[in-house]
Each structure stands twice: as C-alpha cells, then as structure tokens.
Design a protein that fits this description.
By secondary structure, the protein is of the alpha+beta class. The chain is built from 17 helices and 17 strands. Helix 11 crosses helix 12. It is globular.
C-alpha cells in the first residue's frame, strides 16, 4: 500500500493542478499499487485566468544584438563577446564588473562609440525565451529549449516551487534534483515555467525577482479549502512575524490603505477576498526594448498581451482580462498601451485591461534625465553608488550622450511642460540660487533641449554619433534637425 503520509484527510491520493508552459492546466497523478482501491479525488481548478503583467523600468530588460552589429563590435574574446548580448542587468554586479567576463566587465572600458553601437535601437531586440514544441506541447529536450535554458540562467535552474501554479513541494517538477527525469517525462521545471512567464526577460536579482515571486504567491493563495488563507489572515499584534519583501505584507494587506501611504480607501473584507479568489492570477513579465520609443514598444507589447490571452483561451480557460503592473518608465509604456494611436487596448474587443498599478512613474518627466544625458552618472565628482556603476552606465556626458541621445524612450522621460518652471537650477558653493530655466514664457524645449550654443544645453552635437552610424540607419544629427531632433 502507499505511504499514508501522502494521503489527504479523506484517505485518498489527491493530486494538485499547476499551470504549465503554454498555459496548459496540468494535474499530477499519484500512482499507487493495483491493490490500492482508495478513491482518487480531483478538485476542479478555477476555469478563469486573469494574467498579471509586469512592465519593468528603463534598462530593466535583457537585450541582444543583431548578428551584423555583433560582428561590427568584434566580440570574440570574453564569454560575453562570443554571443550577442547587448544588455543583461543581472550581469552588472560589482564582482562581474571588476573580475568577471560577463557584459558588465565589457562596459567598464567601453568607448562612447562602442556604447552607441551596442545600444542602437535599430540593431537590438528583447531576449525572449523560445522553446521547442512537440504536438503543441513543451519539449524540454528540444534543441531550442536547451539553447534558451542556457541563455536564461538569470532565472537559475533549481528554482523552488511557488504553489499552486508553479509546482508543488511533492511534485516531480518541483524537485531540483529530478531535472533529468522531468525532461524525460516531458515535465517543465519551475525554472522553465518562470522563463516562459517572461521572468528571465527582465532583471531577476533583487526587487524585481522578489516582487514577481511574492505576487505569484499571494495572488494565488487567497483562500485555502474555502477559508481565507494564512497569507491573507490578520495576525494578532503579539503573533510571530513572517517577513516578506518590504516587511510583513500580510499585516498591510488587511489594513486600510492609509496604513501604507494611500490617501483614501478601506481595508479589504473577507467577502471581497472570497469573491476574487476563484480565479488564477499567473504573474507574467514582459521585457521591452527600452531604447526604442515607448510608442513602438506599445505596439509589440499589445500584440503579446493579445496573444497571451488567446493562448489561454485555446487551452480551454476563460481569459479576457489582464492587470498591468509597472515600474518607472514602464508606466509610460502602459499609457501608450491603452492609447488609441499606439497599443489601443483601452477599448479592445478581445482584451480588457482591468487596471494599471504604477510605481514611481515619471508622469510629467524626470529632471534626472537631463542630468544623466548632460553630465553622466556622477554626483559632485563622486560616482552614483560607487565607481563601477558609473563606469558601466557612462561616467561623463560624452559616454552617456552616446547612448541616450540616440535612445527615444529615455528622451521621453525628459520633463514636459506640466513639470513646471525653473527646475534646472545653478547654485553656488553655498547653495545660493544663481540662475534657473525655463523662466517666464520660456519652454524647456526651446531653451534647454533645442539650445545649441549655451553651456547648459542638453546635448553636445559632437557627442551624438561617435560610432559613425550612417544617416540612413538613424545616425548623426542632420543640419535641418539640429534644432529639433529632440522632438522626434
């Protein structure tokens, strides 16, 4: 007979549903001896899916180079230079920059010309997770799968399960030591599911990865056997604290929003939680080319969202609604997503955006965008964070301009008219204000961004095209556009 430890309270071998690659609802069956006649219960999972889609901030997505640009940069010495990686934020740790042979080390000594060529919006694309399919199902041993797994190791192999949708602690797919068996039996590992969800398209170390895992855990464990689950249950003040990212989330979730900084709102009720619980909320991430205009990225992301919804529908699940979560510039992209001239998701007949949650979105622009383009990543002679960060991102205006002057999306973060007046200030050593712009009827566009001769101008035209990209491919500042290129 089977080990009684595996039996549930009804004395049977109940399995558990997960949500696999491609959006398939998958069920783990516990096999027993033929003499074991105990009934096997199957609890029908929710039939409705509402994907939660995360859009990262600028430089938060993985990019790769075109083959021609890789050859032009002559990458063949270090590990990074043997492939076509353009940007991998997970490889920009201090150790990687100083001692490693990943992309961070390459950037440390890159010239302005190399930076421009590496961040060319016309020669880069997002690093997606592609996989082999066999009869419309995921093939873990397929050549495309194996190649993608090798490249997407920012989400490492052996990732622990996040029940219920991303593996269970007793399932084969959740066992880090059973990867070979998983592939033999066509099971996806938890790490592969995360990569398919787009988690490896974005920065995974640190807050982004923790946010994705935490959201997945909380949103899909609202109830447990008909009752509010422990993650969403208020704890007594003297109860042991269970700390997650950002503190004890549970203690905040069951309080009025004012407890965590909101201006209004009421606490979630038990009835409200139970109402939204009969649904799956798979957390996806979608990287985008943060160099290209957010208008261009909106067209791509909108089609990805439509395809994701259609994919779940083809698996027999009810799916028409999505929730979007953004960080920083991802908020500008989300606005373009619902704009009728770009993503056009506001009144889409097939997809409904239930809501968008913004986190530190530069709604009216960010003055720091001017500072980084004009002066690079230095603060009063001291690099931001420390020396290695500035060496990677551009230690001075010449290195930063080579990237940012050719990158429409970062330029879209410059302060607009609604940002207000006199935000660009000149102060003396005592902190006394000497001058500021724009003043009176002046605009930042005419008196800062398009200014060609003043020392406070945004861009030095001589720094724009160190890589000598030809005009037909977007390089340089044409004479007719020297005063208006920033507007395009």
């Amino acid at each position: 007979m089977s080990d009684k430890k595996t039996l549930n309270e009804h004395g049977n071998h109940q399995g558990e549903f997960t949500l696999g690659i491609g959006g398939w609802a998958e069920y783990t069956v516990h096999m027993t001896e033929t003499t074991d006649t105990i009934r096997h219960d199957v609890i029908v999972p929710p039939s409705k899916v509402i994907p939660v889609i995360f859009l990262p901030g600028v430089m938060g997505s993985n990019l790769r180079l075109s083959v021609s640009r890789k050859i032009e940069l002559d990458r063949k010495e270090q590990k990074t230079r043997r492939d076509n990686r353009a940007w991998r934020p997970d490889d920009i740790g201090k150790f990687d920059v100083i001692y490693g042979d990943e992309i961070g080390n390459w950037f440390k000594n890159a010239s302005p010309a190399q930076r421009q060529l590496n961040f060319d919006p016309n020669e880069t694309e997002v690093e997606y997770y592609h996989y082999t399919q066999s009869k419309d199902r995921f093939d873990p041993e397929g050549p495309e799968t194996l190649a993608a797994d090798a490249r997407h190791q920012n989400v490492p192999d052996g990732m622990p399960p996040i029940p219920p949708l991303m593996g269970h602690y007793r399932s084969l797919a959740a066992d880090p030591g059973a990867d070979a068996l998983n592939r033999q039996r066509k099971f996806a590992t938890v790490s592969q599911i995360a990569r398919w969800r787009g988690w490896s398209e974005v920065l995974f170390k640190g807050p982004y990865g923790e946010m994705l895992k935490t959201a997945e855990r909380y949103l899909n464990n609202i109830t447990e056997k008909g009752a509010i689950g422990p993650l969403w249950t208020a704890r007594a003040p003297d109860a042991p604290r269970r700390t997650w990212v950002g503190g004890d989330l549970t203690s905040l979730l069951v309080q009025a929003p004012q407890a965590f900084g909101a201006s209004s709102g009421t606490a979630l009720t038990t009835d409200e939680l139970k109402k939204i619980a009969p649904c799956w909320y798979p957390v996806h991430a979608m990287g985008y080319n943060f160099i290209r205009s957010n208008a261009d990225s909106a067209l791509v992301i909108a089609e990805r969202i439509r395809a994701l919804v259609t994919g779940y529908q083809k698996r027999g699940l009810k799916c028409k609604e999505v929730i979007i979560v953004t960080h920083s510039m991802g908020g500008l992209l989300a606005r373009a997503l619902i704009h009728p001239r770009y993503g056009n998701l506001l009144d889409d007949k097939d997809v409904k955006v239930l809501g968008i949650y913004h986190n530190v979105m530069p709604t009216m622009g960010a003055a720091s965008a001017y500072k980084r383009i004009r002066f690079g990543f230095m603060e009063n002679g001291i690099h931001v964070s420390d020396d290695y960060t500035a060496k990677v991102l551009g230690k001075d205006g010449q290195n930063a301009t080579a990237i940012l002057a050719n990158a429409p999306a970062p330029l879209e973060m410059l302060p607009g008219a609604k940002y207000g007046k006199e935000w660009l200030k000149v102060v003396d050593a005592r902190g006394e204000l000497l001058w500021s712009w724009p003043r009176g009827d002046e605009t930042a566009l005419a008196h800062i961004y398009q200014e060609r001769d003043a020392w406070w101008r945004l861009v030095n035209p001589d720094w724009v095209n160190p890589g000598n990209v030809i005009a037909e491919k977007g390089g340089g500042v044409k004479k007719s556009l020297r005063a208006s290129w920033i507007c395009e």
